[in-house]
Design brief:
Elements (H helix, E strand, L loop, with lengths): L3 E7 L19 H12 L5 E2 L3 H12 L14 H20 L2 E8 L1 H10 L14 E4 L3 E4 L7 H11 L3 H4 L12 H26 L11 H27 L1 H14 L6 E5 L4 H11 L13 H19 L5 H23 L5 H19 L1 H47 L11 E4 L11 E5 L2 H24 L2 H4 L2 H12 L5 H4 L4 H11 L3 H14 L9
Parallel strand pairs: 1-2, 1-3, 3-4, 4-6, 6-8
Antiparallel strand pairs: 5-7
Organism: Aromatoleum buckelii
Keywords: Membrane, Transmembrane, Transmembrane helix
Protein name: AB hydrolase-1 domain-containing protein
Length: about 550
């Protein structure tokens, strides 16, 4: 029975399927035809999307997408890539259950979805990849928290108090997910408090006294304390012996890891001149615009501005003069209302009707003479309330604008890097072309983009940029500053096929690189890894 092998292609950002516009990765595309041809030349039975005829419709139905072949939203968001990673895992499990062997090709941020799907950055990951993978032009999002002051203390506590750690090895922290001492202490204290409150409530609800729940027997407690002391001494004695034997056991652990090593099935193909990598690395490294000295308004200046704005709004909404007279009337009426209960308490209640009548007559006379100020006096509570609300609104807007100004660049960076929704803070994110040698326990390979493909793409890119400059020179002053026109030109330039970031799936030399790796056997991969270890004593970003 022939082996069933398929090649799944994961597209990158902004490359989701569009009706009427076939994608480079879709079945029957030029890339798929050329890759199938080169795979056959290398003796591989795998073909692009070979599984679709058997189970494409079922996979489409299960994923709830419009296409039988794998695709995702293509949005530049960590949340969307995470969803794509889970969908890819489910699809691979489905194919494995039906006897298919898989291989993967991923482009751009589609490669980050693949890396997340297999959790390759987890040092405690069990098992290795079962199919060869090629990541094309992937700007690797590496997450690593900076060293914390109490990190070593947490590690010592973990090693000292974790049972059997010397026999089974210490679980290493996952980069970007290192423990925090403050969080550990807070979790323990809050949890203990909740347990105490729950126990106190349940004991009180049952009607028991706390002392009645303790077994009253001196012999029982002496025996229990002795047993606990003996068992604790035996345990910690064993731990001490295990700690003394740690070097020997570490050797056993190294042998175990060597025996359980896996072939480097993951290949990164990238270029230092890749536009996506250069843009994202530049965005990550760029600093926010500094504050202009003396540009921030003081609190007093801001308050004076708000008062002036409130006065101007009041003038627009209630266009009457005599505001001071109106305020005086409002003050007199208010004082009269306050004095009514005061006069009543002085036992001069007979004078109250006379005083109120005089006030009423005076107010009526003023209303006849100056109706505008009188209306202002009547509406004074509402207008003062409006002023208070305007002040609160202005204060909230000032606080939000200050916050937005401080975090605007960080937000733009997160949007550009596509890490919105990520649990990792921006400070933990680094953009790499090639991971360090400890990534995925070293189970990866790295190749530079084929020289011929890179040179061809650079020449084509220079021609495209020259054409753009010529277009700019031909524009009139009016057309030159049309923002909609710039938006369309920038979008067209980003989708230009004459870019290094798109040459990975267009140039025959790169397609040969892809096919060569997908067709490699386990033995060839092991040999390549040993050869790389000999030729590269140190491995760093973009040098491997």
């Amino acid at each position: 029975m022939a082996t069933k092998e398929t090649v799944i292609i994961v597209h990158g950002t902004f490359a989701a399927p569009v009706e009427g516009k076939p994608g480079w990765y879709e079945p029957g595309s030029a890339f798929c035809r050329q890759l199938d041809e080169r795979l056959g030349a290398h003796g591989s039975q795998a073909r692009c999307w070979a599984h679709l005829e058997e189970c494409g419709e079922e996979l489409r139905r299960r994923a709830g997408r419009a296409t039988p072949h794998f695709s995702w939203s293509g949005r530049n968001s960590w949340t969307d890539r995470s969803a794509a990673a889970q969908q890819l895992l489910d699809e691979l499990d489905y194919l494995i259950d039906r006897g298919w062997k898989w291989k993967l090709v991923a482009h751009s941020h589609g490669g980050n979805a693949v890396l997340e799907a297999f959790d390759l950055d987890n040092p405690n990951r069990i098992g290795g990849l079962t199919g060869n993978c090629v990541l094309l032009g992937t700007p690797i999002l590496h997450f690593a928290s900076p060293p914390k002051m109490w990190s070593k203390l947490v590690e010592r506590l973990r090693i000292s108090t974790s049972p059997m750690v010397h026999f089974y090895g210490m679980r290493r922290s996952i980069p970007g997910r290192e423990p925090s001492l403050l969080r550990i202490v807070a979790a323990a204290v809050v949890s203990l408090l909740l347990w105490v409150l729950a126990a106190n409530y349940l004991v009180h609800l049952s009607g028991f006294e706390l002392g009645s729940l303790i077994y009253e027997s001196t012999r029982f407690w002496m025996a229990a304390i002795g047993a606990v002391a003996v068992l604790g001494a035996l345990y910690w004695g064993t731990r001490y012996v295990a700690a003394e034997a740690a070097p020997l056991l570490t050797g056993f652990q190294a042998i175990r890891e060597m025996v359980m090593s896996y072939p480097p099935r993951l290949l990164f193909i990238n270029s230092e001149r890749d536009e996506a990598y250069g843009f994202l690395a530049g965005v990550r490294a760029a600093e926010a615009w500094p504050e202009v000295p003396g540009a921030k308004n003081s609190g007093r200046q801001w308050f004076e501005i708000v008062v002036r704005q409130a006065r101007e709004k009041d003038v627009q909404r209630y266009p009457w003069d005599g505001r001071r007279l109106g305020l005086a009337i409002a003050g007199i009426v208010g004082a009269g209302l306050v004095m009514v209960p005061l006069l009543a308490s002085l036992d001069i209640s007979r004078s109250i009707p006379f005083i109120v009548s005089c006030l009423f007559i005076g107010v009526t006379l003023i209303a006849l003479i100056a109706p505008g100020p009188m209306f202002f006096a009547v509406a004074a509570p509402w207008r003062l309330t409006e002023a208070v609300f305007f002040f609160a609104y202005s204060l909230a807007r000032r606080l939000l604008s200050d916050y937005a100004r401080r975090h605007a660049w960080r937000t733009l960076q997160e949007l550009a890097l596509g890490v919105t929704g990520s649990p990792h803070p921006l400070g933990d994110v680094t953009i790499l072309r090639c991971p360090d040698r400890n990534f995925a326990r070293g189970e990866f390979l790295y190749e530079e983009l084929a020289k011929g493909a890179e040179d061809a793409a650079v020449a084509a890119r220079s021609h495209s940029l020259l054409a753009e400059f010529q277009w700019m020179q031909q524009q009139s002053d009016t057309d030159f500053w049309r923002l909609d026109q710039w938006r369309d030109r920038i979008g067209a330039l980003a989708a230009d096929p004459n870019l290094i970031h798109t040459v990975y799936y267009r140039h025959p030399d790169v397609i040969e690189q892809i096919a060569r790796h997908l067709a490699r056997s386990k033995e060839e991969l092991y040999a390549l890894r040993r050869d790389y270890e000999v030729r590269h004593s140190t491995v760093g970003d973009a040098t491997y």
